[in-house]
Amino acid sequence: MNTEKKRMSLPIQILIGLALGVIVGLLLQNNPEIADNFIKPFGTIFLNLIKLIIVPLVFSSLLVGVADLDDAAKIGKIGLKTFVYFLFTTSIALIIGLVVANVLNVGAGFTIPIEDIAYEAKEAPKFIDTLVGIVPSNPLKSIVEGEMLQIIVFALILGAGLLAVGDLGKPVLNFFNGIAEAMYKITNAIMKLAPIGVFGLMTPVIANNGPQVLLPLSKAILAVYLACALHVVLVYAPTVKLLGKMNVKQFFKGAFGPWLFAFTTSSSSGTLPVSMEAAENKLGVSKPIASFVLPLGATINMDGTAIYQGVCALFIAQVYGIDLSISQQLTIILTATLASVGTAGVPGSGMIMLAMVLQGVGLPVEGIALVAGVDRIFDMIRTSINVVGDLACSVIVAHSEGELDRSITLETIKAQEKAKHMSK
Ligand code: ASP
């Protein structure tokens, strides 16, 4: 039997893992500890496997990517374009989030008495500290601790240095090229376990967040999901089409795998190996651009998180009966844009940064307690949108630099159509 041809595509396998996770999670609602103790470990092991390749993958592929770009001015140009796109889309995300939250009146009709709310907010890092922290003083420490922005800066500096020493730098670059390639291979192998991993991640989420927990927050959840969908339609689709000159359908086909992966893992950093693979092999983004834009995006570009922070700020204000003025809502746009930059690409960090947004407009930080219980439900959608935003940016920057390999995209589409035909 020809198993190669018959094998289901990975996103379908992941979807099956997801669906099983939902079903088993619903069945285990009365005993969530079974899900936590026996099923969650599979998800944790899977996530750990993915995480273990992130630092070597990002560092080595960015280092090699910088050397391939071969020109400091070009790196600066790419950096600027990336940054402008990130900031532009994040502020639009906030506007969409706030408009949807205002229209839906998210906090109206919320019934939990405010006196019951108690929440120890963890302190959000200050923006200036985040900025200063970008430059590492001890690069090995940054690598050991997985400080993504510092790793990016060090890779850029070392890559430029290796280029400057000419032939002497070549063996080092070859070495890291070998590591990067090996990491891609390992990613592919680990991804074979994704359906089990996703099952292990989803089951405890559903078992712990049953419908009865979700109901009172349904309006806020609906607002975040709706605003995220609108952001995709109003921002990513047109910018990919107009600025990246890519067929929107092709883009979403290529981005679907990473989207789904981010949705189930709630970690943009964890999704990096998957999105880098998809950007290169499905969207045709060159390796240097993908290895620059995507790790940077996974660290600082968080449109979904921005939407969530905007909606939740308004939600909390309404529940406390505080009327936010237009200028306060503008402050939310500003602080949440900064907060989303400072948000780490790991589960739950967007909620911690929400504290900064609430403080910025003088809202009670304890309000976070209202949304904390179901954070995972918010986290799944915001992370998946964060990742799609990074991919959109990589396509646009690659196109503008003439580094988009269009034959890859078309061939992928053709191959997919063919495979579909064969399975019929
Ligand atoms: N989990 C999100 C991410 O990794 C960050 C957040 O919590 O908003 O992109």
TrEMBL record:
It is a multi-pass membrane protein. Pfam families: SDF (PF00375). Keywords: Cell membrane, Membrane, Symport, Transmembrane, Transmembrane helix, Transport. Its main location: membrane. The keyword Disulfide bond does not apply. The keyword tRNA processing does not apply. It comes from the Bacteria. The chain crosses the membrane at residues 12-29, 49-70, 82-104, 148-168, 189-208, 220-239, 352-374. It is found in: Cell membrane. InterPro entries: Na-dicarboxylate_symporter, Na-dicarboxylate_symporter_CS, Na:dicarbo_symporter_sf. This is Na+/H+-dicarboxylate symporter. It comes from Peptoniphilus stercorisuis.
